[in-house]
Amino acid sequence: MLSNELPIGFIDSGVGGLTVVKEAMRQLPNEHILYLGDTARCPYGPRPAQQVVEFTWQMTQFLIDQGIKMLVIACNTATAVALDEIKAKVDIPVIGVIQPGSRSALKASHTGEIAVIGTEGTVKSATYEKELLEKSPDVHVRSLACPKFVPVVESNQFTSPVAKKIVAETLAPLMYNKPDTLILGCTHYPLLRPIIQNVMGSDVTLIDSGAETVNDLSTLLDYFNLNNYDRKVSKTCKFYTTGSPKMFRDIAGDWLDLKTLEVEHIHLGGK
Amino acid sequence: MLSNELPIGFIDSGVGGLTVVKEAMRQLPNEHILYLGDTARCPYGPRPAQQVVEFTWQMTQFLIDQGIKMLVIACNTATAVALDEIKAKVDIPVIGVIQPGSRSALKASHTGEIAVIGTEGTVKSATYEKELLEKSPDVHVRSLACPKFVPVVESNQFTSPVAKKIVAETLAPLMYNKPDTLILGCTHYPLLRPIIQNVMGSDVTLIDSGAETVNDLSTLLDYFNLNNYDRKVSKTCKFYTTGSPKMFRDIAGDWLDLKTLEVEHIHLGGK
Q1: Is A98-209 the same fold as A3-96+211-265?
Q2: Contacts of A216 in chain B (CB under 8 A)
Q3: Which sites are catalytic (chains A, B) (predicted)?
């Protein structure tokens, strides 16, 4: 098989990376997709950086063993701590979600007041601040960890009244001196987007770091001549989860608007 | 000097690539720029492909000798015939303007009726059609060579009544069964943009392939860790032309809104 015909790999701590896959399916309809969500060990946010690096390596190795032409680390927590190392060591192109999201926020912001919401791990890494301030030293960046958001999404309660309450309470610190641009610095958060937009108000631009990543993915597929032009084989999406295939299928089927979905349970990390 | 601090190189047959530089200055304010316009041998459009390849190599070599960290072939005619060869043979990242413009047109078009205007060389190469149809076999692409546009721009007459007449007459064949998206497939054409938009009507989306290229440039600067973060040295833009520095300075100063402009005459191609 030509490498162009191999799937693109996406990894995430759970279902969050599906927000990136959704955009990839829209913008890159010819590409095959392999997805791995480490649901059993989700959330990654509260874990020590070294453990996140280890888990991310395990996911990367699993998808590379299946055969992929490019890897998207569709998880902000993993991108923050593992992207540079993985990119340096594997021989396919690897991208994360933080640089595209930062670039897009800088384009969108008029006031220079940018806020980032993410997991504890992402916020602690300060990767967004670093990216934003290196490119544009004059912006003012605030970061807020939202540790309750990922569990709400992973338990498929992201449209519930509980979700609304949690989002409103968590984002309250941002309501004074509101940013004009808010980076959804976790790929799970776009599933909460309507609620987040409602809480923040329509005057705040939300940046979906995952969706922005697909623009970079397109650019790099072109740059490395890796586009799939073969239309003889019908397009495939395959999903792996370390957790419950049923729960994964419920969320993914709804979110991606797919009636049938090939989801396989796998085990990562030895015994 | 760290490679991050080197300038980005831009090459074009003349002043057209300045439309790309203008967008680069806006989106990438920290980057140093070296520009080479081969004004003395412009237009490239009517020249045989092999000669365009040869001239493009000469420009590439000149800028590489000055020291650049990345090269933008900011000329559609040169991109169409020389990008693959140059990209394969030089050891810095090289991008052209056709893939970004094609991608953007596919995103913008709702009806799938896409038209491309460019030089004879670009149209003859059918590179846009190939890019567009490989990615989206269902679109309908028409191409129209506009050989009179580049000379109008290079002679600094791009707002004149003559320009209006030439644009209206040249684009007449596109007025039946109008496309919804028109690719400005030559980096000179954005200087004629108001006239082109007026002729085509406000319902036609114009794609500035050069401006789109700067999005790719940002992505690749991130991907290859080539951003310039050094703010100690004030930003520099230097321009080389094989033609008249005065004419170049007049056009470039207006277009880039720069009061002073370092323009140096050089000779390319041996004796």
Answers
A1: yes
A2: 219, 222-223
A3: 75, 186
- Topology (CATH) of B98-209: Rossmann fold (3.40.50)
**Which residues of chain A lie closer than 8 angstroms to B24, CB-CB?**
none
Cα separation of A180 and A201, whole Å? 10
DSSP H or E segment with residue A117: strand A113-118
Task: Sketch the domain layout of chain B as residue ranges.
Answer: 3-96+211-265, 98-209
Nearest chain A residue to B226, by CA: A135
DSSP string covering A128-145: HHHHHHHH-TT-EEEEEE
Tell me which residue of A127, A149, A164, A201 sits closest to A45, measured CA to CA.
A149
Residues within 8 A of A (CB atoms), B 94-113 only:
95, 99-100, 103, 107
Flag if B216 and A222 touch (Cβ within 8 Å).
Answer: yes
**CATH code of the region A3-96+211-265:** 3.40.50.1860
Strands of B205-208's sheet in order across: B140-145, B113-118, B181-184, B205-208
CB B235 within 8 A of CB B212: no
Residues of B in contact with A227 (CB under 8 A): 134-135
What is the interface pTM, i.e. ipTM, of the complex? 0.88
pLDDT confidence of residue B259: 85
- For residue A128, give both structure tokens: 């967004």
Amino acid type, B123: V
How confident is the model over B207-227, as a mean pLDDT?
A: 94
